[in-house]
Design a protein that fits this description.
Layout lengths: L22 E2 L21 E5 L6 E7 L28 E6 L3 E9 L32 E9 L3 E2 L3 E6 L10 H14 L4 E3 L6 E5 H4 L2 E5 L8 H4 L33 H18 L5 E2 L4 E8 L2 E2 L4 E3 L6 E3 L1 H4 L4 E12 L5 E16 L3 H15 L1
Antiparallel strand pairs: 1-3, 2-18, 3-4, 4-5, 5-6, 6-13, 7-12, 8-10, 8-17, 9-10, 11-13, 14-15, 15-16, 17-18
Length: 380
């Protein structure tokens, strides 16, 4: 099945029985940052929805092996969260579109409540076969896979992922704990842009070096969703599906030492290469509209069922509620353009959404509602 329209026909309807959803994060009826009350959340205490005002349109929700959208999500602001116990082919995926990207997202959160959908839980309960457990023997608690196409050429070094907040942070842990956490993240992402104070805190790092797995496909495929559920592997650096192959040949010199390396070494190699590109501000290579890209992200520091950060001892678990000040966590990627002024200093940053989804926990709702009322009073 053809999941993504050719870029020259992006405004056309999906074929094979699909239809466009009316959910758009810029609609007038969906411009509030406040979600519905948690009592209305089908997977309470968690809620997933497109970020209001981010320009993300939800085309529809379907099973990963299906080409038809599920009617129960046609007008809903709630998007499905998989918990890793779904039977093969029964993961729920989200087709979406922004000004710069069109693709599909599949989210798994450990211990999330199962998604009841059209009378079928989608977790293998209707199958005679035992359900697999994606998180079994894995340290991670979160996994998201984004697959799709860029609508125009965009320098890879200008794409970032992470967290952006629209209000100041709440009560942060002691400074020594925050410093240690940022140091740990900086080791994992050397090009981390960290700003925890001020009106708009952020934690951003290069997209191509932050993803745990990154792949590309040069040709239209008929099985575009098979990677969304499967165990992904970093491509061999010499494989056509490796992002390393998009580098100019002159920059691939001496990269052959890892041609026979294991998966972790290939990931480390790709991260190092694209960290260097980001640091140098290279305008090439670029994402190509004729290719399809797949990014996998996972982490183990956040316990979503408890909504807490799980620091190593002696720090232990720390609740996220007070830190976030009523703001959700995001699944986010953006095109970050920075222009130089006459003195060659960076200024005039322009951020454009590639994709953006909010993960809410019910403990955030009270503070979010209070902040929403305060913002309304200020605007009046």
């Amino acid at each position: 099945m053809k999941v993504y329209d050719p870029c020259q026909d992006l405004n056309a309807e999906f074929s094979a029985g699909r239809r466009m959803s009316s959910i758009c994060s810029d609609d007038d009826d969906y411009n509030s940052s406040l979600p519905p009350h948690p009592e209305a959340w089908p997977q309470r205490p968690l809620l997933l929805r497109p970020t209001p005002g981010a320009g993300v349109t939800i085309r529809g929700v379907r099973y990963s092996t299906s080409n038809k959208y599920l009617p129960s999500y046609a007008e809903s602001q709630n998007l499905p969260i998989n918990n890793g116990l779904e039977a093969k082919g029964r993961c729920l995926v989200i087709d979406f579109e922004s000004d710069l990207f069109i693709g599909t997202a599949c989210l798994r959160l450990k211990n999330a409540r199962k998604s009841d959908c059209d009378g079928d839980a989608g977790d293998g309960s209707g199958s005679d076969l035992p359900s697999p457990d994606y998180f079994h023997k894995k340290k991670r608690t979160f996994q998201v896979v984004i697959s799709g196409r860029f609508k125009r050429r965009i320098p890879m070094s200008e794409c970032v992922t992470g967290q952006i907040f629209t209000r100041p942070a709440g009560v942060l842990p002691p400074r020594i704990v925050v410093k240690a956490a940022v140091l740990l993240m900086s080791r994992l992402a050397p090009q981390l842009q960290s700003r925890l104070e001020g009106d708009c805190p952020r934690l951003l790092s290069p997209l191509c070096s932050t993803a745990q797995t990154a792949q590309m496909k040069s040709n239209q495929t008929t099985d575009a969703d098979e990677d969304l559920e499967s165990e992904l592997q970093e491509p061999h650096p010499s494989a056509p599906s490796s992002l390393i192959q998009s580098l100019p040949k002159s920059k691939m010199v001496n990269r052959s030492t890892l041609l026979d390396s294991d998966n972790k070494a290939r990931i480390k190699n790709r991260k190092k290469v694209f960290d260097e590109l980001h640091s140098n501000g290279s305008v090439e290579p670029s994402f190509c509209p004729q290719s399809e890209y797949c990014f996998e992200f996972y982490q183990h520091l956040i316990l979503f069922d408890k909504f807490a950060l799980d620091f190593p001892k002696p720090v232990g678990q720390r609740s996220l509620k007070k830190m976030l000040n009523g703001q959700p966590l995001r699944i986010l990627a953006m095109h970050q353009e920075q222009k130089q002024n006459k003195t060659k200093e960076m200024n005039n940053e322009k951020m454009t959404t590639l994709w953006s989804f909010d993960i809410w926990h019910e403990t955030l709702y009270k503070d979010a509602r209070s902040n929403s009322t305060t913002d309304t009073d200020v605007s009046q």
